[in-house]
Design brief:
Blueprint: E1 2-6, H1 13-27, E2 31-36, E3 52-56, H2 70-85, E4 89-93, H3 95-111, E5 118-122, H4 125-128, H5 134-146, E6 149-152, H6 155-165, E7 172-173, E8 198-202, H7 211-224, E9 229-233, H8 239-248, E10 256-260, H9 265-268, E11 274-277, H10 286-293, E12 297-301, E13 317-319, H11 324-336, H12 338-355, H13 358-378
Parallel strand pairs: 1-2, 1-4, 2-3, 4-5, 5-6, 6-7, 8-9, 8-11, 9-10, 11-12, 12-13
Helix pairs in contact: 2-3, 3-5, 7-8, 7-11, 10-12, 11-12
Bound molecules: ligand GMT.
Length: 379
C-alpha cells in the first residue's frame, strides 16, 4: 500500500507511535509518506530501502494573517502528496487538527474523481482535554465521525470518546506497540549489579504527567536506599518546578539527574530498574510499555488505559493518583529484594513481548487500512 501519515513531529507519545508505525510499515514493504511541519524526531528515512518519504508542510505567512493557516497548508499538502504518490490511504494521528485537514483533502480529491480514505487515531488528550473544549467539541466529533476508520489506543479511550464526544460510529482499540528487538533488557552481564538502583521518569513534563510526584516519591525512597538515583528524562513546563522541589528536599544533582530530551530511549531504559508514571490521565502509557520491554518495572497510577497494560502485583504496580507514600512503598519493595525485582522485571518483559510487540499490533493497522479502502470504494 501507499500510506500517508500525519502527526505532531516533536516529542510526544502520538508522534512517536506514528513514526514507529511508519517505520514498521515500511519494513513490511509499504511505501510510507510522512506529511508534517517538521521531520519527526525518531524518523530514520534512510533505514527503509527508499520506502519512507518526508514531505514538509510549509506555511506561507502574510501580513494580514494574525495566525498562519497551518490546517489549510496541511490539507493542500495532503491532497498534493496523495495525487502525486497515488496514496491508498491517509492515517492521521491526534484528531485536532489533523482529521479536519484530512477531511478537506479528501473532499478536494473527490472533486477530481480520486479517492483518499483517511483513518484517524485518537491518542488521549485530543479527546480528554482539547476535544472537550467548547470551541473544538463539535468539529472534533464531526471529523472523527467523517473518518473512514477510527482507532483509539485503548479500550478506555474508545469508551471515553463515546461518553464525552457522543461518537457513535465504530472505533477500534489498537493498543500502543513496541519494537521488542530494539527495546530489550540489558545483557545479563551488564545488569543490576553494575549500576546503582535506578528510577526513571520519561514524559513531556506537562502538569498531567505530575512529574513533581516523582520527586516526592524519590524523596521517600532516597533515605532507605542511599545509593539510589532518579533519572528525569524529557522537558516541559514542570521541569523547573521539579528541579526546585528536588533542591528543597535536599536531593543532590548526583542523585536526581535531569537529562532533558533524549533521542534514544531504547538505550536509557535498559539501565533502569523502575519507571515512575504518576500521571493524572493516561490513555495508554507508552513510556510504561517501552520500560517494560526493557525489563524496568512500572510503578504507575490507576488511570485511563494503564490497567490494560500493567497488571497490579504481577508486572508492575498501580496506585491512586497522588498516592506518593504508596508508590514509594512499592519502589522500596522492589529495591529491597533483587529476587522480587527480577520476577517483576521478567513478567514486565513477558507482557511487552506477548501482547504489545510490533509484530502483533501492526497487522491490526493494516487490516484497518484495508477496511477503510474497501468501504470508501463501496461508497
Ligand atoms: O502524553 C503524552 O506523552 C503525549 C500524548 C500525545 O498525544 O502525544 O500521549 C498520548 O498518546 C500516547 C501514545 O498513544 C499514549 O500512550 C499516552 O497515554 C497519551 N497521553 C495521555 O493520554 C495523557
Amino acid at each position: 500500500m501507499n500510506i500517508g501519515i500525519t502527526c505532531y513531529p516533536t516529542y510526544g507519545g502520538s508522534g512517536i507511535v506514528a513514526t514507529e508505525l511508519g517505520m514498521e510499515l515500511a519494513a513490511r514493504g509499504h511505501n510510507v509518506h510522512f506529511i508534517a511541519y517538521a521531520h519527526p524526531i525518531r524518523l530514520d528515512t534512510g533505514a527503509s530501502g527508499g520506502r519512507m518519504h518526508y514531505h514538509e508542510v510549509e506555511v506561507t505567512n502574510y501580513p494580514l494573517f494574525a495566525y498562519p493557516p497551518y490546517c489549510l497548508a496541511l490539507a493542500a499538502r495532503m491532497a498534493d502528496v496523495a495525487a502525486s504518490y497515488d496514496l491508498d490511504v491517509l492515517h492521521v494521528h491526534y484528531a485536532i487538527p489533523h482529521s479536519v485537514s484530512a477531511l478537506l483533502a479528501r473532499q478536494m480529491l473527490a472533486k477530481r474523481g480520486a479517492r483518499l480514505p483517511f483513518v484517524t487515531t485518537l491518542h488521549g488528550t485530543d479527546v480528554t482535554l482539547v476535544g472537550m473544549e467548547l470551541l473544538y467539541f463539535e468539529i472534533t466529533k464531526f471529523s472523527i465521525e467523517e473518518s473512514d476508520g477510527v482507532t483509539a489506543v485503548s479500550q478506555y479511550l474508545v469508551d471515553r470518546t463515546r461518553e464525552v464526544l457522543g461518537v457513535t460510529s465504530p472505533i477500534r482499540a489498537i493498543h500502543n506497540f513496541v519494537n521488542c528487538n530494539l527495546y530489550r533488557p540489558a545483557p545479563v552481564t551488564a545488569t543490576a549489579a553494575s549500576h546503582p538502583p535506578r528510577l526513571v521518569h520519561i514524559s513531556n513534563f506537562r502538569p498531567v504527567k505530575r512529574p513533581l510526584d516523582c520527586i516526592r516519591v524519590f524523596g521517600r525512597v532516597a533515605a532507605s536506599h542511599p545509593d539510589a538515583e532518579l533519572w528525569m528524562v524529557g522537558d516541559g513546563p514542570e521541569r523547573g518546578p521539579a528541579e526546585r522541589l528536588a533542591h528543597e528536599l535536599g536531593l543532590s544533582r548526583d542523585r536526581v539527574k535531569f537529562l532533558g530530551k533524549q533521542d534514544h530511549i531504547d538505550r536509557v531504559l535498559p539501565q533502569c530498574d523502575v519507571l515512575l508514571l504518576p500521571s493524572e490521565h493516561e490513555a495508554f502509557g507508552l513510556a510504561a510499555l517501552e520500560a517494560m520491554a526493557c525489563g524496568a518495572v512500572p510503578v504507575a497510577t490507576r488511570t485511563g488505559g494503564v490497567g490494560e497494560l500493567v497488571t497490579h502485583g504481577v508486572d508492575g504496580y498501580l496506585e491512586e493518583i497522588g498516592a506518593v507514600e504508596a508508590m514509594a512503598a512499592r519502589v522500596n519493595e522492589l529495591l529491597a529484594s533483587s529476587l522480587h525485582r527480577r520476577t517483576f522485571s521478567a513478567a514486565a518483559r513477558n507482557t511487552a513481548e506477548t501482547r504489545f510487540c510490533a509484530d502483533l499490533i501492526i497487522p491490526q493497522y493494516e487490516a484497518c487500512y484495508r477496511d477503510a479502502i474497501a468501504a470508501a470504494a463501496r461508497a
